[in-house]
Amino acid sequence: MKKLFLLFGIAFLSLGISSAQFFSYGIKGGVNYSKLQFDDISNISTSGMDYNLLEDNAFQSFHFGIMTRLNIMNMYIQPELYFNTSGGKVLVQELDASGGVTVENIKQVKFSKIDLPLLLGFKIGPMRINAGPVASAVLSEKNEITEVIPELESLSKVFTIGYQAGVGIDILKFLTLDYRYEGGLSKWGEKLTVGGNDYPFDSRANMHLLSLGILF
Predict the structure, then answer these.
(1) pLDDT bucket at 40, cuts 50 / 70 / 90
(2) Is 7 within a domain?
(3) Overall number of domains in the chain
(4) The model scores a pTM over 0.85
(5) Does 10 map to a domain?
(6) Which terminal CB of the chain, N or C, has fewer other CB atoms within 10 Å?
(7) In this structure, is residue 97 part of a structural domain?
(8) d(Cα 92, Cα 97) in Å, to the nearest integer?
């Protein structure tokens, strides 16, 4: 009888280890460095002043959420769901009647989003390489450009599609460290509208993400 219980115990423990090796889940979080990329826009006409909008530096933000991983030999599928902030900085130049620059302001455009990446990866020992699509739903937009140009309409779409690619390492079987690059496949918008006038606008945000995760 003791041997039978011992066999059941070993079988149960083996099943648990096998399940953990096949499927795991956890939490993750980290920092982002994102930037808006667009062609410079010149001579935006408003009722009171004309402006240029120029691409400026990236800014730092954050992300946090949940992750799952399905292991298949040396490959894995990793769906994730997390809250993310991204965007960039824009240089706004005020112009005088002759087109000369009178005042320059750096304004931030910030998007709060829910991101859903679906990554396919390969493992080489503790190292990992992964890539896949990411769908984003924009929850809110904070656009400081409207402090200077109140007539400017929203820049963002509700849903966008992009991609992620990067590398990672697993530490002590329950910690994960990842670096990824995220690029945009969807435009944030087709145009800018200011005071009834349309200006070409094709901005695709890119982002660098550094994450730490804990697997259970």
Answers:
(1) confident
(2) no
(3) 1
(4) no
(5) no
(6) N
(7) no
(8) 16
